[in-house]
Amino acid sequence: MTNSTILANPVQTPEVAPATIAVRPRRILSRESFGDLTFRRAAFGAGIITVAIMLAVGLFLSLRAANALGTVGWAFLAIQEWSPETNTFGVAAILFGTVTIALIALVVSVPLSIGTALLLAEVVQGRLRALLVSLVDLMAAVPSIVFGLWGVYYLQGAIIPAAKWISIWFGWLPFFAVTDAEGRPFTEASAFTSSAFIAGIVVGLMVVPTQTSIMREAFARAPIGEREGAFALGATRWGMITSVVLPFGKGGMIGGTMLGLGRALGETIAVYMIISPIFTINWQVLKTGTNSVSALIALRYGEASEFGLSALMAAGLVLFALTLVINFTASTIVAKSRSGAESDD
Amino acid sequence: MTTELTELLITDPDADQPQTNCPEAGDRATGPRRDVRGFTAAQRFDLIGGGAAAMALATLLFGWFAPLSGALGWVVVAFAAFLGLYVLLVSMEADLQEVKDRLATVLFASAGVLLFGSLVFIVVYTLTRGAEALVNLNFFTQTMEFSGPLDPLTNGGIGHAIVGTLIQISIALAIAVPLGIGTAVFLNEVGGRFARFVRTVSDAMTALPSIVAGLFVYAALIQGLTHERSGLAAGIAITVMMLPIIIRSADVVLRLVPANLREASYGLGSSRWRTVWHVVLPTARSGLVTSVILGTARGIGETSPVLLTSGITAAMNTNPFGGPMISLPLQVFDFVRSPEPNMVARGFGAAAVLLVLVLTLFLIARALGGRAPGDLSPRQRRATLAASRRDEQRFAKRAATVPTLEGSPHAA
Fold this sequence. Notes:
By secondary structure, chain A is mostly helical. Helix content of chain A is 67%, strand content 1%. Chain A has one domain (77-341): MetI-like fold (Orthogonal Bundle). Chain A has a two-stranded antiparallel sheet. By secondary structure, chain B is mainly alpha-helical.
């Protein structure tokens, strides 16, 4: 309760306990008009239909997946092979591939998006900034198949020398090595195609716009008073960014990164076009062959029997659970941070 | 509450003395205004000199001194050399803090150039490789029904895929727009515990991978009911994917409608329904249109839900209820599975058409919307001004016909 309400009621009632003067909304006793009732029911109906559709998706997937999950049990998370016909199938290798691709995507996208977001929020001004900001939003709408085409027909050829170079000079790191079964290093170009590395770069570029626009919004909300305070104390722009903008926008940075991670995990068509699917865990990210849950679904749904489809749904459900946890963590972090506290989205 | 009251009553014993010391400006000179953004000529020369020296160094290394080769390597070496040389040049006349500042600015700009460069490159690459197919008009009008992989580009086209995309997105919009905006209105204008639940569920659904949405429609609708792939199934799969996106962005837009507009409407005695229809929705119109168009752009470009549900065909099919109906992204995917150069060219052509479609939608969204509720374009502002002038004249005319208000019971 504000001071003005107290002062506006200077009635001395010492016997009334303070709790009872609490202001409550007035109860409205008149009946709703026909129009209002219809409106409220229609809006309620829209809400119910939406929830029904979404719960139907969730429930249907869970029920159909239960069949496959019941057959293999927890081993579903540990088995690498995928052959529902012989009842040995699991997501270990596929999930490993999905996560590797998404992590490589983050390695590419996070420095790019933080740098670009700071450039847009702090360095460029006026018309150029407006132009670049809408360019970023525009890029978020570019269809993933376009990225996939570019990845297959341009990037793959252009990046192989770089991949080879990394594997030669940094091959002592186990995940950069490219070796055959006996441990001898590969050098021919064909060993470097269709790898998690290439898919990761393409997916990384795909999620950069999303991450950049979330981070830029968080950075731009840093209070002007604190910025000017830092400048008044003699800070350079970089000093101001490290002492005001970055601490303020930390929530936006983490949240944006995780939302990008969620999208990278679920990306289908670009990954499907680039990778060559395998069903073993491949630590060598530069070497041909990896897999992802969504690419697996796109690859196998046609040939799947009733039970095979159930297994695919179980894989889809695991992926959905993963992205769900990541998205909710991200939105909680954004909402709890200082930069997200004043925002509505 | 009582404490607040007492706090107000207590008088500060030192209240007479000013609490902040404001020194007299006196004869102290004001320092020069610090420019934290601009560039001086010397700083520009640092940039140019560093860049030129780095390129020269990289060319020397690659051409003569070291066994290095490759364009990518040259760029990396030149960039690293540029950073080093630039730091050296700046540090000749600046302290550590300023060196750090200038280095950070250069790094931000490099990130921006790299990002915008590669994104623009992706778009331009698709358009140029697609140009070969796009110059033939038959590419837009014919179908692939009577054209094989070996046929020249003057034969066959993607007319059927364009029509399929339009039909599928229309189905999706017909379901998703009323439902999405209705749900967003429900979340904001009706509210309550159930609304919070709806918001949580729709937020959760934004995490649904699009392929899983496709898998759901495939298993539930195609396997369970219709037993054939169709445009309708694809439209529904796109709806499942687009609905949470539209709800979320429409929800954000509706939340930005100022509460005092609603209160003013209620205060004038209008009902809830009239407030929503005449105040809330018109205020948020541009934002709502933008959110729908952006959702459409996402929905049109999605390949994975369509891959499972629409089926692949080379013939024109305008009936969404029966038979496979291909769409643009799926057509691209289907074209580039063939190794024939002509099919790949057609794939790039179809991707370019898709890209142009999405970019056009985006530009329309930008032109129409992107404004906060109540933020009017100059034209809208003139229209509002004219309307309120008309009102003023009407009031004046009316006041002239009614003799006087004094003495009437409504005057008080």
